[in-house]
Amino acid sequence: MHRRFILHLGGTNTGKTYAGFQRLKQAKTGVYLAPLRLLALEAQETLLDAGVDCSLSTGEEEDRREGDTHLAATAEKLDLKRRYEAAVIDECQMIADPQRGYAWTRAILGVLSPEVHLCAAPEAKQLLVRLIESCGDSVEVAVHERATPLLCMSHPIDYQRVQPGDALITFSKIGVLSVAEDLRQSGKEPAIIYGALPYATRRKQMEGFLKGDMEYIVSTDAIGMGLNLPIRRIIFMAWSAGSCARRRSSRSPAGPAASGCITRAGWEPPRTSPPSGRGWRRWSRPWNTPWPASPTWSSRWISTFWRS
């Protein structure tokens, strides 16, 4: 099978996934591959709302629907024997991840679809193009530009002075729970998200933040893979996962995504806009831009990203 790849490149909030998803809705059969279970579930719900019969397949949950035409799954769960009219593979810069990169390599090399949309950060372009060309397939590159500016605050802040819509990012479960407890002690009830959080609990936390029941969110970098959350400001409690067994840095594929929280094109947050009146968007940092020196999550003083 000769396959045509459309490579969607761009930073966060550039509409990469949105563009691929529009084609997926039109296809008679299709598959969407995501890095996170919650993102796969969100894709399934979006397709179901659009009248498309879509099943879900992740490491924790199987929701197989009789007569389905589409599948939303985590990257590892792709069925290499099933044919699709269109395929969308999200966050393809994860191909460089030491632990999970094999899943994206397998999906790109093996997906049975004549039209494949790959969504990735610009830094992944060279690797992805070489991989596609090695298969003898054709590739088109579509560059997406950021819709809103990213600004970095020039001074640290006291993280206990958070504002509604703030996301505090740390890189470990201990960090998340500690920061969340500090906020609760000051009368602020945050939503929390980390990789080991039970599936149902994680979804409940997301829904609480989306509805505005919880005005703050504390999370690991698990939040940064395209989840739709109305975040106004990103506050980093650390630059790397020094307290984790598997050390991750902000230069890893997951690092820039963590600063890319969280709203994608084609989606509007279900709450009022911040004082600027411009709404929430997601932000990221170019990988070749050095990070300033930073304290760990235990410090009260942290640096932030701010969108004016």
Mean pLDDT: 79
Biggest beta sheet attributes: 8 strands, mixed
Q: Give the termini distance in whole angstroms.
A: 48 Å
Unreliable runs: 242-252, 255-308
Number of domains: 2
CATH class designation of the largest domain: Alpha Beta
The CATH architecture of the largest domain can be named as 3-Layer(aba) Sandwich
What class, by secondary structure content?
alpha/beta
Instruction: Indicate the proportion of strand residues.
Output: 15-25%
Number of helices: 7
Q: Biggest sheet, strands in spatial order?
A: 4-3-5-2-6-7-1-8
What this model shows, in words?
This protein has 308 residues and is an alpha/beta fold. The chain contains seven helices and 15 strands. An eight-stranded mixed sheet has the order 4-3-5-2-6-7-1-8, sandwiched between helices. Strands 9, 10, 11, 12, 13, 14 and 15 form a seven-stranded mixed sheet that branches. It has helices at 16-26, 37-49, 101-110, 125-134, 173-185, 199-211, 254-258; strands spanning 4-9, 30-34, 54-57, 62-63, 70-74, 86-89, 115-120, 138-143, 151-152, 157-158, 166-169, 190-193, 216-219, 233-236, 301-306. It starts with a strand and ends with a strand. It has two domains: 4-143, Rossmann fold, CATH 3.40.50; 151-306, Rossmann fold (3-Layer(aba) Sandwich), CATH 3.40.50.
